[in-house]
Amino acid sequence: MSKDNLKHKRMGKKLVFDDKGNPHELHLMDDEEFRGNLLEESKRFAETDVMDKEEAREEETEGAREDAGE
């Protein structure tokens, strides 16, 4: 094919196959949807990180109390 023909040729559709082998079109997110999902995941990660740090502090405090003989 010439370069001119390639410019006007449609791109193929991307397919993914489920567990049963059935093809489905790959859903591509637009930028706005991607940013929304990214922001949501970032918030969830930050909340989980805060909870993990609090639990670690509590465990550290409990361990220090046990070492001090309380």
From TrEMBL:
Ranges of Basic residues composition bias in the record: 1-13
Q: Where is the composition biased (Basic and acidic residues)?
A: 15-24
Q: List the residue ranges of the region (Disordered).
A: 1-24, 45-70
The identity of this protein, by name, is Uncharacterized protein
